[in-house]
Known about the structure:
Blueprint: H1 2-14, H2 19-34, H3 38-59, H4 64-79, H5 83-100
Helix pairs in contact: 1-2, 2-3, 3-4, 4-5
Amino acid sequence: MLEARALRIKELELGPDHVEVANTPHSLGATEWHLENYERVKGLKELKERALRIRERELGPAHLTVANTLDSLGATEHGFKNIERSKELLRLVSNLLHDFD
């Protein structure tokens, strides 16, 4: 898959913890979800969590991009029937968005 290749290239060029590297796992997880490749999504959930850590560190915990990542993780958890974890993540999103008002 092209996005997986793009991730490897970005990691080599920019380093594994660069904020641009975080964009690819986020997109890759969404693509696999929409293609209903749920087994791959389980592994990609870890990549989304990695993207969240990178974005929080590089952009700050109150950044809109961090809220987007939390929302995506919440949806992923909901899809896997991890309802309590999903609610927890979505509460964080709600709190972040409330701060933007």
